[in-house]
Amino acid sequence: MRSLLDRGADPKTLGWIPLHMVCGGSGESSVEMVALLLERSGNYGVNRRDARHKLPLVLTVCGFGYYADPARHLRCRRIVRLLLRAGASPSEPDIDEECVVTERGIRCLEEASVNPDTQFGHPQFTWKHYLATKQLILDMRAAGSPRAYRMTSRKQVLALRSLTLRGRAKPRDARMKFLVESPNEIAWKVLEYWRTELDC
């Protein structure tokens, strides 16, 4: 793909643009290909429907499908982050519809007797990437933009730090304990580099 783009291939074709083709997370290099296409096309197509009227974000959620494949799920999770950072809208009804279908698939697998020794492993471990992705989409929708989402996370950390300093809460983990015990200058510096699910 890189070679084709270097030789002048246009990533902004009509109908099925290349971005739509790689969003499902099926190939081992799909995350890198999505990143390359977004970079070379200036984020073209993140909110563009394909020939079947599907958005790239919806196609990525479809990638979770009914497969209990942790590697593919991790790729889909990373692609969702890339698309949201590039400006994909998390508020489309199609996304909710696809999430419901995937939830049904999870329940079907959980109800089936899945052998933990198989290549797929146990469903409760397999579907963690889907659940984290769904939560990210909901949080992004509530925040309204990537910037607002990042600020919401920092505000929550500051509020928890404030409550902990007043004795109304306890630190949940070592990171929070460090933030509570640090002077204000260090705590502010840490929050400048605070990473959210969107930045991972």
Summarize the structure.
The protein is mostly helical and 200 residues long.
Structure report:
By secondary structure, this protein is an all-alpha fold. The protein folds into 2 domains: 2-143, Alpha Horseshoe (Serine Threonine Protein Phosphatase 5, Tetratricopeptide repeat); 145-200, no CATH class. Helices cover 60% and strands 0% of the residues. The protein contains 11 helices and no strands. The protein has helices spanning 2-6, 18-22, 30-41, 56-62, 70-85, 93-111, 123-126, 128-143, 146-165, 174-181, 184-192. The longest helix has 20 residues, at 146-165. Mean pLDDT is 84; it is low at 116-121.
The CATH homologous superfamily of the largest domain is named Ankyrin repeat-containing domain
Query: How many strand segments?
Result: 0
Shape: globular
* Rg of Cα set: 20 Å
CATH topology of the largest domain: Serine Threonine Protein Phosphatase 5, Tetratricopeptide repeat
How much β-strand is present in the residues?
under 5%
Secondary-structure class: mainly alpha
Mean pLDDT: 84
Q: What is the succession of H and E elements?
A: HHHHHHHHHHH
**How much helical structure, as a percent, in the residues?**
55-70%
Helix count from the secondary structure assignment: 11
- The total tally of domains equals 2
In CATH, what is the class of the largest domain?
Mainly Alpha
Unreliably modeled segments: 116-121
Assign the CATH architecture of the largest domain.
Alpha Horseshoe
How far the N terminus sits from the C terminus, by CA atoms, comes to: 25 Å
Largest sheet: none
